[in-house]
TrEMBL record:
Signal peptide: none annotated. The chain holds residues 249 to 605 of 605 of the full protein. Its main location: cytoplasm. Homodimer. The active site is at K352 (for fru-6p isomerization activity). GO terms for molecular function: carbohydrate derivative binding; glutamine-fructose-6-phosphate transaminase (isomerizing) activity. One of its GO terms (cellular component) is cytosol. The keyword Repeat applies. This is Glutamine--fructose-6-phosphate aminotransferase [isomerizing]. It is found in: Cytoplasm. Keywords: Aminotransferase, Cytoplasm, Glutamine amidotransferase, Repeat, Transferase. Catalyzes the first step in hexosamine metabolism, converting fructose-6P into glucosamine-6P using glutamine as a nitrogen source. The gene is glmS. GO terms for biological process: carbohydrate metabolic process; fructose 6-phosphate metabolic process; protein N-linked glycosylation; UDP-N-acetylglucosamine metabolic process. It catalyses: D-fructose 6-phosphate + L-glutamine = D-glucosamine 6-phosphate + L-glutamate.
Length: 357
């Protein structure tokens, strides 16, 4: 049932190329055309987008914010559903609220959705589970088509949520973007290639298994990837792990750095201004004794002099990078948890679907 893998989590990580292809199938064309079959939900005249979600799904919401702002030029906020539902947000018909949930049964996300509907907002679900409560109570659903996810830690659900969010962002954009569409359509085969290169990550996991804590830094869409890497490590390895926006290091977190602390650095795509800033951050943490593990694009050697370990992923459009940079962090968390003797698929204190507050 685990398809030859030791854990459901590894099986589901391996299924990601297919899962992302299934999310995109018949919805995105090479010319940039998007067809999401939203029924009566009208996406014209949306003036604001608010995305509500929990846990890993919240990290996909954070990535979606960058994509919707950049491609669609619509103001967008990503909100923790558990906070949003108890606030008094300003919403009306011109607001599109997107609820992201693998299970479609997460209580806080469902309540956030109901809160939004009651105030007249349009509601779109991005969901993996057909006929789930969140899907039923939304005006339209973009199913992620990721297939069943058994492991408590979300992996393929995350990547398929990201893919669905990119589709929604492209759909909201005023004009088709064939270049972005082609890069997105290329991701499934890039993922398949990437998964073949993960042996050094498994070896690294054995080295990191005894670290007292692990820190993750990233910027732009690499920031939610850093948060996701840290969440995976917390829930599976029961280690202290934190993700930071690299620009915030100097405002406090750099005090945590010492020579026993590995820092996993998600380097933005080369060419942009943030790339060089994160290279500087990598130098800074290394100068304070940290072991630096850098996730960079293939061919980007700029951080090599400051990287104790360099893990590379295939190049893509900067906004799409989380579809690739997340994968080594998933494998790292899984293998560290296994090395520490934990039940990877069923971590302590956690349930797959959080249907209570
Ligand atoms: O089913 P949902 O997507 O609504 O679940 C949200 C979170 O509970 C979930 O992503 C959780 O954070 C995962 N265990 C993380 O791996």
């Amino acid at each position: 049932e685990k398809g030859g893998h030791d854990y459901f989590m590894l099986k589901e990580i391996a299924e990601q190329p297919q899962a992302v292809a299934d999310t995109l199938r018949s919805r995105l064309r090479e010319d940039g055309g998007v067809d999401l079959d939203l029924g009566d939900l009208d996406l014209r005249d949306v003036e604001k987008v608010v995305i509500v979600a929990c846990g890993t799904a919240y990290h996909s919401a954070m990535v979606a914010k960058y994509a919707i702002e950049q491609w669609a030029r619509i103001p967008c906020e990503a909100e923790l559903a558990s906070e949003f539902r108890y606030r008094d947000p300003i919403l009306d018909r011109s607001t599109l609220v997107i609820a992201i949930s693998q299970s479609g049964e997460t209580m806080d996300t469902l309540m956030a959705l109901r809160h939004a509907r009651a105030q007249g907002a349009r509601v779109l679900a991005i969901c993996n589970t057909n006929g789930s409560t969140i899907a039923r109570e939304s005006d339209a659903v973009v199913y992620t088509h990721g297939g069943p996810e058994i492991a408590v830690a979300s992996t393929k659900a995350f990547l398929t949520q990201l893919a669905a969010c990119y589709l929604v962002a492209l759909q909201l954009a005023p004009a088709a973007d064939p270049a972005a569409a082609r890069r997105l359509l290329a991701v499934p085969s890039q993922l398949a290639g990437l998964l073949e290169t993960m042996d050094p990550v498994r070896k690294l996991a054995r080295d990191l298994a005894s670290a007292p804590q692990v820190l993750f830094i990233g910027r732009h869409v690499g920031f939610p990837v850093a948060l996701e890497g840290a969440l995976k490590l917390k829930e599976l390895a029961y280690m202290h792990a934190e993700g930071f926006a690299a620009g915030e290091l100097k405002h406090g977190p750099i005090a945590l750095i010492d020579d026993a602390t590995p820092v996993i650095c998600v380097l933005p795509s080369p060419g942009g201004v943030l790339h060089d800033k994160v290279v500087s951050n990598i130098q800074e943490v290394r100068a304070r004794g940290a072991r630096t593990i850098v996730i960079a694009e293939d061919g980007d050697d700029s951080a090599r002099p400051y990287a104790d370990d360099l893990i590379t992923v295939p190049p893509t459009e900067p906004l799409l990078a989380p579809l690739l940079t997340t994968v080594p962090l998933q494998i790292l968390a899984c293998e560290i948890a296994a090395a520490r003797g934990h039940d990877v698929d069923q971590p302590r204190n956690l349930a797959k679907s959080v249907t209570v507050e």
